[in-house]
Write a structure and sequence with these properties.
The chain is α/β, with parallel strands linked by helices. Strand 8 and strand 9 form a beta hairpin. The strands form three sheets. Strands 3, 4, 5, 6, 7, 8, 9, 12, 13 and 14 form a ten-stranded mixed sheet that branches. It has three domains: 175 residues, Spore Coat Polysaccharide Biosynthesis Protein SpsA, Chain A (Alpha-Beta Complex), CATH 3.90.550.10; 89 residues, Tetratricopeptide repeat domain (Serine Threonine Protein Phosphatase 5, Tetratricopeptide repeat, Alpha Horseshoe); 106 residues, Alpha Horseshoe (Serine Threonine Protein Phosphatase 5, Tetratricopeptide repeat). It holds the Pfam family TPR_8. It comes from Desulfocucumis palustris. Keywords: Transferase.
């Protein structure tokens, strides 16, 4: 059964059907939350279990009878490709068990289901990974989430796998929210270590993600080694190269080597125009060192950059909005330019009206400026 719709040009449109394909293991704390958020969006739910020992399969049974077992072989792509092979609808949606689609995005998704051009091969969506205390998004990236089944797109990579897609791709504003739960933090690192010990030849992408795992485990010297191996291949996604520069700067900062830290911040400019995240980091370094004019330069540059609308890379939203203005307030205050300090604090306040530092600066600077006005009148 399908629903036929007529668009405004009089062209007959078919509402697409969607299979949700997931791989799970011991997700009893999150799987119901995830499935509740999408159960009325999808037409089929396919769950591949890789070895649960808790109530995951029992809970999933309340949503679907399409539950399959997959023997775990240290390969996420193999499991995901198996799940995709079991789908039977027009399009495939993938999620992890700790992902949810919130109500406003659920409604947009239902609308997309009715209006998606069948020529579209994939739909990518923002992936919201972190929020501040006021619910504002602080960290996000994008993922291809909905793909045409007939294209037989494949997952690639044993760990930190990616879905290789091509053709007509729609940039959607429908967001998926990640609500991370505690899990085995050593799992991915151990998979890489076993692959390395077995003599497997790593791809540039493997170097990058292995380095990320080493960094997360505070093995900074080894992380540096593999980030540099990644960059030295002169291959890989440009966003990963930029992110590797940021991580290398982090490593050298942790190891107390500011010269190397700054070198990799600057190296990021080789791959693209300056990003606000790097400008803010350079501004912070100058501010800490008392080089206020250089700090102003970098923070001002961050405020002048155009925030990417559909960026696929890691985006720390504060650096593209309120943070450089707040830091410019600090710089200008120390330089004695209180009107400029107040101006930038007010801009920061448009983004962060409840920020304690912003409120404090406003009260402080209004007091300073009021005093200066009185002194001018009395002079």
């Amino acid at each position: 059964m399908f629903i036929m719709l007529i668009n405004f040009e009089g062209i007959i449109m078919k509402e697409i059907s969607i299979s949700l394909c997931m791989i799970v293991k011991n997700e009893e704390n999150t799987i119901a939350r995830c499935l509740d958020s999408v159960k009325d969006i999808v037409d089929e739910i396919v769950i591949v279990d890789t070895g649960s020992t808790d109530r995951t399969k029992e809970i999933v049974g309340g949503y679907t009878d399409k539950i399959y077992d997959f023997t775990w072989i240290d390969d996420f792509s193999a499991a995901r490709n198996y799940a995709f092979s079991l789908a039977s609808t027009d399009y495939i949606l993938w999620l992890d068990a700790d992902d949810v689609i919130l109500e406003p995005d659920r409604l947009k998704f239902l609308d997309l289901k009715k209006t998606l051009d069948p020529l579209m091969d994939a739909v990518n969506m923002p992936y919201l990974l972190a929020f501040d205390q006021h619910g504002n998004v602080t960290f996000s990236l994008r993922r291809n989430r909905l793909v045409k089944r007939s294209r037989n797109f494949q997952w690639i990579g044993a760990v930190h796998e990616y879905l290789a897609v091509g053709g007509h791709i729609l940039n959607s504003d429908i967001s998926v929210v990640h609500k991370e739960e505690a899990r085995d933090s050593d799992r991915n690192l151990n998979i890489y270590e076993r692959r390395l010990a077995g003599g497997e030849e790593f791809t540039p992408r493997d170097f990058y993600y292995f380095a990320n795992e080493l960094f997360e485990h505070q093995q900074f010297e080894r992380a540096i080694e593999f980030y540099e191996k990644f960059l030295n291949t002169d291959m890989g996604w440009v966003e990963d190269r930029i992110a590797a520069c940021a991580k290398l700067a982090d490593c050298f900062h942790r190891l107390g080597d500011p010269k190397s830290e700054h070198a990799f911040l600057y190296r990021s400019f080789e791959y693209d125009t300056p990003r606000a995240e790097f400008c803010c980091r350079l501004g912070h370094s100058c501010l800490q060192a008392g080089r206020l004019k250089q700090a102003v330069f970098w923070y001002k540059l961050a405020t002048e950059l155009e925030k990417p609308v559909d960026s696929w890379g890691h985006m720390y939203h504060a650096c593209w909005t309120w943070l450089p203005h707040l830091q410019l307030c600090v710089c200008y205050d120390r330089l004695g330019e209180h009107e400029l300090a107040y101006k930038h604090n007010e801009i920061a306040r448009t983004f962060q009206p409840e920020n304690v530092s912003v409120i404090h600066n406003k009260i402080y600077l209004e007091g300073v400026l009021g005093k200066e006005v009185k002194e001018e009148k009395n002079s």
